[in-house]
Amino acid sequence: MTATVSFTIDSPLGPCTATVAYERKGAGEPLLLLHGIGHHLQAWHPVTGILAAGHDVIAVDLPGFGASGPLPAGVPYDLATVTPALGALCAALGVERPHVAGNSLGGLLALEMGRSGLARSVTALSPAGFWTESERRYAFTALRAMRAGARTLPVSTLERLSRSGPGRAALTGTIYARPALRAPAAVVAETLALRQATGFEQTLAAGGSVRFTGDLPGLPVTIAWGEHDRLLLRRQGLRAKRTLPGARLVRLPGCGHVPMNDDPALVARVILDTAASATGYPA
Questions:
Q1: Is 48 within 8 Å of 41 (Cβ atoms)?
Q2: How many other β-carbons are positioned within 10 Å of the β-carbon of residue 109?
């Protein structure tokens, strides 16, 4: 069941309040799950049951996405604001230094949480920030096209398309390698989440100059990339490995940009292995 929590964050405009939606299940060491731009926490549903067997799993809607409220007017959706906001969220939920797994934008935020000392381990699935300028422009163009389609199509058309494999491919083939496996109701819901994402444009604008640089020594890090990622091309995984030589690089066969639905068992195993490897590291 989705709940909400409000907490104070620091911003260039001073302290302000953010309200975030989240789902929490399971018991054990905490594990925070972060979705990508335009998506929502339901992207993690294919794997949360597996992860919750051994972890206190917290899946969140990032500010300005899903059921979470937008950041206050004038507060930037940049890494310098959102990363510590996620730390404040964890504190509000009574969690200290969770394991963090993120996809796309969420993967970049997971790495930034690791850099900031806010994570005990990091699993980044096709994280943003390892692109060349041409790769970034290509990805942003694709995202804007997806957003335009989501905002244009009537709900009745979305529902009709979602009922067929080719229709689901037309709606979500950019992010899934196996879009026909996605449930029709989930396709409609995530398309509407993309349509209604109040933080989309500001987040995209803030990402224009983002590049992740520097290793995260002393922290278990896994970079995992779908071999059929059509949004952030898989060669960016090699670039991430060069940037983070201490990280484990994992290929995800048969998976696209959002791999949790393409192969839930494999993605869960990668996350669980990364969390387990934190044993022996400083708490």
A1: no
A2: 30
pLDDT at 281 over 70: no
d(CA 5, CA 253): 37
Task: Give the strands of the sheet with 29-34, arranged side by side.
Answer: 3-9, 16-25, 55-60, 29-34, 99-103, 121-125, 221-226, 248-252
pLDDT at 7 over 90: yes
Q: Which residue has the tokens 């899903």?
A: 66
Using CB atoms within 10 A of its CB, is residue 32 exposed (0-12), middle (13-18) or buried (19+)?
buried
pLDDT in tens, 229-254: 999 999 999 999 999 999 999 999 99
| Ordered DSSP codes for the chain | --EEEEEEE--TT-SEEEEEEEEEE--SEEEEEE--TT--GGGGHHHHHHHHTTEEEEEEPPTTSTTSPPPPTT---SHHHHHHHHHHHHHHTT--S-EEEEETHHHHHHHHHHHTT--SEEEEES-SS---HHHHHHHHHHHHHHHHHHHHS-HHHHHHHHTSHHHHHHHHTTT-SSGGGS-HHHHHHHHHHHHH-TTHHHHHHHGGG----S--TTS-EEEEEETT-SSS-THHHHHHHHH-TTSEEEEETT--SSHHHH-HHHHHHHHHHHHHTTTTS--
pLDDT in tens, 23-81: 999 999 999 999 999 999 999 999 999 999 999 999 999 999 999 999 998 899 999 99
